[in-house]
Amino acid sequence: MGYQLELRHFKYFLAVAEELHYRKAAEKLCISQPGLSRQIKQMEEILDTPLFVRSKKKVSLTPAGAYLRAELQYILNHLDLTTKHLELLKDGDSGEVRIGFLGSAMQNVIPDLLIALKEKYPKVRTSLEELSNSAQLDAVMKDKLDIGFVRLARVPEDIHIHPVFEDTFSVVLPEAYPILSREFEGVHQLSGENFVLFAQDYSPLYYDTIMSICEDAGFTPKVSHKSVHAQTIFKLVENNLGIAIVPTSLQYGFHMRVKFLELKNIPQRAILSVIWKKDNRNPALKHCMDLLMGQKNIN
C-alpha cells in the first residue's frame, strides 16, 4: 500500500476518540468530515485493526481503539511536555515542575516548598492545580503532573509515595456550640450530631479514617452533607448544619465563626504524602524532590 503512519493520523484518531462523533471531530480539527473519515480508514488499514465501531446512531471504540487512545494520550502529552521543557531551557530556565495538591497541603507544605525552590533554584518554574486524590494519581501516571500531594494508603508499583507531613485531627464546631475545650473529653460526646465530611470519592482514606475515629468512640456518624472543599464544610458548620472532623492544619487561612477542638489522644493521624512517577525524566523534578526529601537521591 505504501502508506505510513504519521503524527496527523494520531491527532485525527484522538479527536474522533474523544468526541465519538465524526462531524464534531472534523469541526474541531478544521477539516472536512469525508477527509477525516478517509484518514481514519487509512490508519485502520495500515494497522490492520478496526479502531471504531460505526453505526447510524453512534460511534464507539473497539478494545484496540480504547487501548490506542490511552497510549496516545500519554505519548502526545509527553511530547508536548518535552517541547515545553526545551523552550524553557532555551530561554535560560531550568524547566517546570507541575504540582497537584489537596487543599490542606496549601497550609504549610506547598508554601514552604515554593519558597525553598525560589531561593535555591530560582530558574525552576512551578504550576499548581488543586485536584482530588484519584485525579492527581491519574495525572501523575499520565505525565500530566510531576508530583502530587495526596492522602493515599497505596499506589501502583510504578509510582513512588513518601509521607511529608503528619497532622492531628480536630473537631470543627459552630463558634457558639455549648462545649468548652476544657470540657471536651472526646468525640463520643458528639455522637448525636450530624456530620459534614469530605466526599468519599474525593479522599477515600480520609473518609475511612474519620469513620474509624467515630467507631473507636462507639458510634457510627450520621453524615448529613459531603463536600470536596474545606470552606464549604466550614460554612455548613458555621450555619449549624452539622459538625466536622478535619486535619488540624486546615484551621489556618479561614476566618469563619467556627472553633476547633484538637483530638490529641487518638491513634489516627492525617498523613500527607508526595507521589511521583518512578520514570519521570523532568530535569527540574530532582531539584524539587531534593528539597522535599532532604536527600540527594530520590530513587
TrEMBL record:
Gene3D superfamilies: Periplasmic binding protein-like II (3.40.190.10), Winged helix-like DNA-binding domain superfamily/Winged helix DNA-binding domain (1.10.10.10). It comes from the Bacteria. Residues 5-62 form the HTH lysR-type domain. Keywords: DNA-binding, Transcription, Transcription regulation. SUPFAM superfamilies: Periplasmic binding protein-like II, Winged helix' DNA-binding domain. Belongs to the LysR transcriptional regulatory family. This is LysR family transcriptional regulator.
